[in-house]
Design goal:
The complex is a heterodimer of chains A (about 70) and B (about 170). Chain A contains 3 helices and 2 strands, in the order H-H-H-E-E. With about 70 residues, chain A is mainly alpha-helical. Chain A has a two-stranded antiparallel sheet. The C terminus of chain A is likely disordered. Chain B is elongated. In chain B, about 75% of the residues lie in helices and about 0% in strands. Chain B contains 5 helices and no strands. Chain B starts with a helix and ends with a helix. The chains are: A mainly alpha (about 70), B mainly alpha (about 170).
């Protein structure tokens, strides 16, 4: 079961090499790559929520002018 | 009674529940991507087109970036739960299961659409299913998994708005 012991090692040569690769020069660029889709998606959500509330404030429901039911 | 008051009291604000649902949908959609495509099917990893996981070191490298990706999706889920809890405490919010389900699906689709465009097409850091038909898989992910889910979510949420508008 040699392969298992290699995979499970938290501080063996393989793990250290992988960690060095992660924290090499490309770390911040890769971090930006990981974060970017989430940032864009959250900005879109913010825009949608503002638009939804704006439509309610304007008295528009689902594209139709709101009619008071009373 | 002016329009503002009548809408707020009869139907309620949708923004808070839509926002919570969309953020939760992004987080849960990210987990579907990470758990299904990265881990179970092992079609790709976060940076598998930059550092292909062909040996143990490169596999571990990609596992770290997959882990950071999952940390972000977890954070969005936590924020989404917080927003949903806050929306639930407000009396002026339309508490609708259809709006929530529609927003969840919309958020999932939004994540797929944005992630598919940025990571697969623009940055090229990974592809859905690398190989001969990788462009077809990528486009399918953006249009079916992205735009399709957003449209489905919109239609479900809109159905709720129509129901509220015609209710006696």
């Amino acid at each position: 079961m040699m392969a298992v012991s290699i995979l499970a090692c938290p501080d063996c040569a393989t793990a250290r090499a992988a960690r060095d690769l992660v924290f090499s020069d490309g770390f911040w660029v890769n971090s930006w790559y990981a974060v970017l889709p989430f940032v864009v998606a959250v900005l879109v959500v913010r825009w949608i929520v503002r638009r939804v509330d704006q439509r309610v404030d304007q008295g528009v429901t689902d594209g139709q002018p709101h009619v008071d039911r009373e | 009674m002016d329009n503002h008051t009548s809408i707020a009291s009869n139907e309620g604000r949708r923004g808070p529940i839509v926002g919570a649902g969309l953020i939760l949908g992004i987080g849960l959609g990210g987990f579907v991507d990470g758990i299904l495509l990265h881990q179970i099917l092992q079609w790709h990893n976060m940076l598998s087109s930059v550092v292909p996981p062909t040996d143990l070191v490169d596999m571990k490298y990609n596992m770290v970036w997959d882990g950071l990706f999952h940390a972000l999706t977890w954070a969005l889920c936590a924020i989404g739960v917080g927003l949903l809890f806050r929306a639930g405490r407000r009396a002026d919010v339309a508490w609708s299961g259809r709006i929530l389900v529609g927003a969840l699906l919309g958020g999932w689709g939004l994540f797929n659409f944005v992630e598919g465009l940025i990571d697969h097409q623009v940055l090229g850091i990974h592809h859905v299913h690398p190989g001969a038909d990788q462009l077809a898989w990528d486009l399918g992910f953006v249009f079916a998994g992205g735009a399709g889910l957003m449209l489905l979510g919109y239609l479900i949420a809109r159905g709720s708005a129509r129901t509220a508008a015609i209710a006696p």
